[in-house]
Amino acid sequence: MAAHIRAEVHAAAPxxxxxxxxxxxxxxxxxxxxxxVPHALRPRAYEETALPIGHEQTISDAYIVAVMTAAMRLPPxxxxxxxxxxxxxxxxxxxxxxxxxxxxxxxxxxxxAAGERLKRLGYRVEVRAGDGYAGWPEHAPFxxxxxxxxxxxxxxxxxxxxxxxxxxxxxIGASWAGEQLLVVTRTGATTTARCSLGSSMFxxxxxxxxxxxxxxxxxxxxxxxxxxxxxxxxxxxxRKLDCPRGFRSLxxxxxxx
Length: 257
Hints:
Elements: H1 2-12, H2 19-30, E1 51-54, E2 57-59, H3 62-71, E3 79-83, H4 89-96, E4 100-105, H5 108-121, E5 125-129, E6 142-147, H6 156-160, E7 162-172, E8 180-186, E9 192-199
Parallel strand pairs: 3-4, 3-6, 4-5, 6-7
Antiparallel strand pairs: 1-2, 7-8, 8-9
Helix pairs in contact: 1-2, 2-3
């Protein structure tokens, strides 16, 4: 899977095939993805798609996890905030990189299950239930923040909790149609720089940062980070997934991330 992801990234944007991608892919290769999906879906754990994990949430496609992880350009022993723990897969990949990971999940049963799962598998991640829009100020500042849910604008609290030089990677847009995967670098006490990984489609952020899904145009003024788009929609295929009974997820209807 890791080799295939590298080939896809290189074909989309050769400049994105860098040392940070290599580090992300090494971590992904070492994390058992099947341990983070429901038992009934384990045979599909390595398919290139999002999969439902219950509570209308999904585990992201490993491709987009690799791209977002690499885009943070984390230093050794980084402090990272992961917003939207889900099943804990993104947090596990970050922990495998050697990062100190703080992860926030708004759905309390998912937060509890992910915390138990990560501990059982030996990943050192601190998980709490809460609204990730506010970040985790007690654990700031962070070298990187990663958010796998879309919002209309960048949450100010998440930028404020970055170190100078730190990067936030998050899908931003007034609606799915206008959404793109942004990299926001904190360049000073009150300044930032932005670039785009390309068009994206994620499930919307819930809680305080939930958007109204009004019409909105794609912001073409944001430069591409690698000179070409490397992002892609983190949603399930247009067909319905063969989901276990009881999984009323967006992914089971072709809209999940």
